[in-house]
Recover the amino acids of this structure.
């Protein structure tokens, strides 16, 4: 990949990261204050559910942020390998990278990995995420 193309993907990742950060956390504090001030037993399950939803959203957001900063690290550590599949070392198609600039695998390797996860043989791959 040409340095200019890598720079373009880097900008894209930085923009995505800025967007996620700007979106902000779902405010836990206000949910908690609400529950305390109401002292309504019926409202408690709903508040709990909202907190579960909020924490799941936050987790997904954090996971996306982590994937994006991993990709940014890969670009700065080893720009030449950016855009190459970590599974088979083949270039990841540009269309896929444009859609998912933080992606590490080509579609073929991704499908294989997901199949292994489904089949419960994912153990050796788990270290990839540590
Ligand atoms: Zn591959």
């Amino acid at each position: 990949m040409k340095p200019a193309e890598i720079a373009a993907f880097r900008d894209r990742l930085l923009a995505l990261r800025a967007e996620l950060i700007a979106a902000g956390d779902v405010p836990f504090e206000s949910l908690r204050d609400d529950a305390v001030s109401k002292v309504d037993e019926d409202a408690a399950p709903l508040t709990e559910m909202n907190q579960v939803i909020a924490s799941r959203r936050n987790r997904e957001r954090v996971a996306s942020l982590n994937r994006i900063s991993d990709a940014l690290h890969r670009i700065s550590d080893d720009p030449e390998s950016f855009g190459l599949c970590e599974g088979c070392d083949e270039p990841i198609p540009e269309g896929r990278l444009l859609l998912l600039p933080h992606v590490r695998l080509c579609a073929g390797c991704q499908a294989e990995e997901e199949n292994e996860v489904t089949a419960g043989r994912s153990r050796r791959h788990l270290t990839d995420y540590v």
